[in-house]
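User: For my dataset I need records formatted as: sequence, then structure tokens, nothing else. Please produce one.
Assistant:
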Amino acid sequence: MIEPYIGMVRRALPRVPGRAGMLREVRDGLDDAVRAHRERGSSLRDAEEQAVREFGPPELVAAGLRTELAAAVARQMALLLVVFGVVTWILTQQTWQAAAARQGSPEPTAAYDVGAHLVDVFSVLATIMLVTSAYLLGRGGRILSTRRVVRVLAAGVLVFLGIWNVASVMLTVFTPVDGLHRLELAQVAIGVLWLSATVGGAWLALQCLRLTSRSGSRPEDRADDAADLLPVLLPRG
């Protein structure tokens, strides 16, 4: 009975980072429960039936796992964007300053100023959002619903990525500095980081929205539902 039970839980979970690990925890928990019942004299079949019954319906277990997976994916997304954002900012500053120095530091255009201010403002807002969300998904997990925090963070990331890409294009098109082609390696690195952050961040944000969709979780889910259902299998990160 263990394998069919695990299979039903597995089918209820999308393929996202952390899924395999959580399924292993469920399997280990079931194996431990079966072993305990066997030591008390139950047959293998009876022990498996009791273990499955104690764990509850697979749909309920999957709902708790989805919440924990969503929180884990959201934390990975926040880390990804922070790292890529810092590295991209450093490379961009060095590239622009080196090219500008060769040309006597030309004055930026008005359009360039607008793009630069957009990048600065939304970078600060994004940092605040990521740090706050990371806290709420960790030690602050009892303050607000995990599902709500993940959905707000995912939507915010998608909006930020859109604005960030538009502003970055403005900076590239209206930059007063010519001859950036001399720093080809830095340009390629910035492009790769830009693409990676956009694609990776958007994919993780969409996975967060998918994991926390109403069709995949119970409307009454609360921040501590997973802890109530499976306190050992689902530790809060």
